Amino acid sequence: MHSASSKPRFPRSRIIWFLSVFSTTLLAATWFVCATWDHFWQTASLPVWQIIFPALTLIFVGTTILGRRYSNPWLRLGYRISAIWLGVLNFSFFAAGAAWVFSAAAALLSFHIEPKLIAATFFGGAMVTSIYGLVNASWLRVTRLALRRRDGISPGMRRGSSGGGSI
Q: Cβ contacts of residue 67 below 8 Å, gap of 6+?
């Protein structure tokens, strides 16, 4: 039986809506991280990372879409770099939130701590965690374990059956 449906599984408008919401959410998180860093590090000018990081966020969305149709080394490189950025963004987002909570708690308790130290501590922890995540993800672990029962039957096989099954 051949069923050729002319109706797409997801209408183009739903895909565009999803990509808009997804991109906006990622860009908002990127802005929050950059704004938090700038506030605590007391940066006055427009740093380069306020251009690079949102660009990497948009590159991730673009390469994800293009990667479904095309494949080339530049596309894979762009995807890999932007995916690494999103991993760092994940931990940096939580570090930024924790920095604000810690700063508010310190202000309520009249405990003065240098804002740069707060930023360096929380974002430094986020970077260490991100690096650990990259190393952990790149470490290939394959475990093969061959089990034999005392009666010689492999697990999942029954006597007299040709297919798998539980014993």
A: 75, 76, 79
CA 79, 80, 86, 90 dihedral sign is positive
The model's pTM is: 0.74
Per-residue confidence (pLDDT) for residue 108, from 0 to 100? 95
**Is residue 34 within 8 Å of residue 49, measured between CB atoms?**
yes
User: For residue 98, is it left (φ>0), alpha (ψ between -120 and 50) or beta?
Assistant: alpha
Pairwise CA distance, residues 96 & 33, whole Å: 6
In three-state form (DSSP H/G/I as H, E/B as E, the rest C), the secondary structure along 93-147 is HHHHHHHHHHHHHHHHCCCCCCHHHHHHHHHHHHHHHHHHHHHHHHCCCCCCCCC
Among residues 111, 128, 102, 88, the alpha carbon closest in space to that of 40 is found at 102
What does the pLDDT look like over 38-66, one tens digit per residue? 999 988 777 787 889 999 999 999 999 89
Whole-number Å distance between alpha carbons of 79 and 73: 10
